[in-house]
């Protein structure tokens, strides 16, 4: 009859506690600065996403030869691109990136020429934590940071 050696299948409580203690010390040391950096990077990613969505709307308006709207839902921080009555694209920035969106207009529209449709400039503010970024959209539909 052979005997099989018993092997350990896990970690001891002491090993787990030591690992958690080291992780807690590291998180406490870099926590606030790390959170600020993460918030800044997330807001920058959201800003780039909004910029790309608006540029995409401009190109689609020219390509389709029809008006294309980008609507801003500030309660859920969602962008919705609509052309010809159909939703073309939805960007749920609040759900995906946990950012907040503030806008002084409810939408931006692009004419078939690719120029902004309307008479007013728009301002969008994206924020998360202490980090915020502002996008200005001219009445011609161009985005400025």
Going by CATH, the architecture would be: 3-Layer(bab) Sandwich
CATH class label = Alpha Beta
Task: Tell me the count of domains.
Answer: 1
CATH topology: minor pseudopilin epsh fold
Distance between the termini: 77 Å
Biggest sheet, in brief? 4 strands, antiparallel
Q: Compute the gyration radius: what is it?
A: 24 Å
The chain-level mean pLDDT equals 89
Coarse shape = elongated
Number of helices: 2
Run of helices and strands? HEEEHEEEEE
Q: What is the spatial order of strands in the main beta sheet? A: 3-2-1-5
- Residue fraction in strands: 25-35%
CATH homologous superfamily classification: minor pseudopilin epsh domain
Helices and strands in order:
Elements: H1 13-64, E1 68-73, E2 78-83, E3 86-92, H2 93-97, E4 100-103, E5 107-110, E6 122-128, E7 131-137, E8 143-144
Antiparallel strand pairs: 1-2, 1-5, 2-3, 4-6, 6-7, 7-8
């Amino acid at each position: 009859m052979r005997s099989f050696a018993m092997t350990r299948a896990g970690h001891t409580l002491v090993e787990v506690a030591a690992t958690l203690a080291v992780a807690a010390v590291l998180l406490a040391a870099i926590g606030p600065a790390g959170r600020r950096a993460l918030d800044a990077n997330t807001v920058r990613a959201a800003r780039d996403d909004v910029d790309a969505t608006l540029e995409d709307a401009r190109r689609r308006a020219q390509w389709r030869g029809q008006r294309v709207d980008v609507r801003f839902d500030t309660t859920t921080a969602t962008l919705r691109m609509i052309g010809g009555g159909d939703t073309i694209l939805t960007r749920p920035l609040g759900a995906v990136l946990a950012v907040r969106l503030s806008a002084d207009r409810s939408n931006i529209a692009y004419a078939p020429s690719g120029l902004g449709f309307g008479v007013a400039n728009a301002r969008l503010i994206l924020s998360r934590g202490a980090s915020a970024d502002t996008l200005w959209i001219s009445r011609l539909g161009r985005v400025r940071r």
